[in-house]
Amino acid sequence: MPAELSPIDKAKFAAARCAVDFVEDGMKVGLGTGSTAAWMVRCLAERVREEGLRITGVPTSTRTGTLARQLGLTVTTLDEAKWLDLTIDGADEFDGELNLIKGGGAALLQEKIVATASDRMIVIADAAKEVAQLGAFPLPVEVVRFGWQTTQRLIEEVLVSMDVLGRQTALRQSGEAPLITDEGHFIIDLHLNRIENPRALWLALNQIPGVVENGLFVDICDQVVIGGTDGRVEIRDIAEGTVREQRVDFIEESNIFLDID
Ligand SMILES: O=C[C@H](O)[C@H](O)[C@H](O)COP(=O)(O)O
After folding, report:
1. Which of the residues 188, 204, 207, 212 could staple to 142 if both were Cys, CB 3.0 to 4.6 A apart?
2. Which residues of this UniProt protein bind substrate (predicted)?
3. Considering the domain 139-215 in this protein, what is its CATH number?
4. Could you tell me if the CB of 56 is within 6 A of ligand 1?
């Protein structure tokens, strides 16, 4: 392993490397977005190269699609694949019930569609992503551009009516301009501090005209794989109620570490 790989990248790699072992020959796999998911795409590509695994990937963003193609993975659209065996993705936060906040990288809409169209969703994360209660990470809400300020006001009204603690909302920027998602929408980030009832908030936000989707994933994730900087990995399964530990080797000669930007 190159010396420049940071401890956090080691943890992300460990989680990703362990999770791709759940992928079997012939599977259709949802490919998440973000820095942890990028490790998963690299690990999957390595398994395809070395073991001749035949898998079809459905990317959840333009950038994941580009990376997957560059690494030689076969990718298709969700409409072509129709239904997936498994989706592996990162998260910004997860709680004890495996509710998630996602969308720090603005890919929440495609991520939620793809994860929902999968038999199973596995989240890969470093330990810092685990929280007792969701909400310290700003909750992203994807909104259509038309009338976005009205939508923002309606979101704030919902937060007041639900007695949510923090109520600051902000249009996400990309440099000087508003960030535009892959689907051509804006993102409004909600700075809430703490979310008492993720399910109620998820449903209430999605009732607002102009809201396309929000980054709360409730009852979608089945398993979380938590990577440690020393290669130790914990696998928690919510349905089975099990916790397992495993160890991942950092293989110095692996090609996987050579194409990191
Ligand atoms: O929109 C982005 C996604 O939801 C990511 O999976 C999430 O932000 C976690 O990203 P990272 O693995 O880079 O922390």
Report:
1. 212
2. 33-36, 89-92, 102-105, 129
3. 3.30.70.260
4. no
Please give the structure tokens belonging to residue 185: 């929408």
**Ligand 1 pocket test: which of 36, 139, 185 has the largest number of ligand atoms within 8 Å of its C-beta?**
36
Tokens of residue 107, six digits: 């890919």
What digits encode the pLDDT tens for the residues 79-114?
999 999 999 999 999 999 999 999 999 999 999 999
Over residues 192-241, the pLDDT tens digits come to: 999 999 999 999 999 999 999 999 999 999 999 999 999 999 999 998 99
CB distance 93 to ligand 1 below 6 Å = no
Cβ burial, residue 35 (10 Å; 0-12/13-18/19+): middle
CB 60 within 8 A of CB 110: yes
Q: How high is the ipTM of this complex?
A: 0.99
Which atom of ligand 1 has the smallest separation from the CA of 125? 12
CA distance 142 to 261: 28
Cβ of 138 below 6 Å from ligand 1 = no
